[in-house]
Amino acid sequence: MPYDESVPPTPRRRPLLAAAMLATVCLSAAGCGADDAGGGAQALPGSSGSTAASPSAPPSTSTPVPEKTSASPAPSAKPSKSAPGRVSGPLSGKTVVIDPGHNPNNHLHTREINRQVDIGTTHKECDTTGTSTNSGYAEAQFTLDVSHRLRALLQAQGAKVVLTYDNDRAYGPCVDERARIGNDAKADAVVSVHADGSAAGNRGFHVILPALVRGGAADTSKIVEPSRDLGTRIAGLFVRDTGSAPSNYVGGNSGLDIRKDLGGLNLSTVPKVFIECGNMRDPKDAARLTSASWRQKAAQGIADGISSYLNG
Predict the structure, then answer these.
(1) What is the pLDDT of residues 239-263, one digit of tens each?
(2) Does the reported pTM lie above 0.70?
(3) Distance between CA atoms of 129 and 152, rounded to whole angstroms?
């Protein structure tokens, strides 16, 4: 769940140009068949790039995305060694910041993480503890594991990868610092990795996009559209690589949601999205989230989405 979330996400209308943009993403990232453009087994959960709606308007779509996929993922380009310890590849020269949601030790530092920080439009908690499965597998453990897998996949393609934290601090970092790390790195893309804590029966993933926000230190006007592109590519390729369906409780089956209450997005000056990989409180989703092999698929889906975005 987003670490600075205090207002439950609200359902949104589905993306208007999903079918058209599906073809674009599939051609650039996976070589999907012609039938996918109509919302078939590999249907992209949302539209990307240009859209007729204003940046602050919720996306809308025409058809839901089925869970099952059929085509195999396109193989990643094999990197070549350009110098000892350095890898060249399709993402050489690109910087990606990965933000593992929460911190496993936040529960030991409630006073510190409850401290209010400025998110541009209001003040919110520095961080939260996150959620967990009913068996006790913590969201913060999940997010760090997926982030490590994601880092390895991106580095193999030549990207410079920065983590906002790597189990190297007692708590946090706070949401404003998480945003600042991406900004200071001048990242080409930032992805914040999460898992949700909703009611049983609520299943699937969703990608959170920044709303158009201007207020105080927050101004997302320059990142709304590139973040939408990044997020819709991640959503489409997450479906393909994991077999997971878009959320049945957020985003109107589009796999996308727009939020204006998250400091990690409001304060970002570079393209950034959150991904809620599944619902830890649903037994079927929890079985996936606690599976190491599925977490590798999740990392692959996110990595493929980032690669598709960065390679245009």
Answers:
(1) 999 999 999 999 999 999 999 999 9
(2) yes
(3) 26
- What phi and psi values does residue 204 have, to the nearest 5 degrees? 100, 175
Query: What are 110-151's pLDDT values in tens digits?
Result: 999 999 999 998 999 999 999 999 999 999 999 999 999 999
d(CA 185, CA 180): 8
Write down the catalytic residue from 5, 125, 177, 276.
276
- Choose among 266, 7, 38: nearest CA to 128: 7
For residue 275 the two structure tokens come to: 């991904």
CB 160 within 8 A of CB 152: no
CB within 8 A of 223, min separation 6: which ones?
Answer: 210, 268, 269, 270, 271, 272
Does the active-site annotation cover 5? no
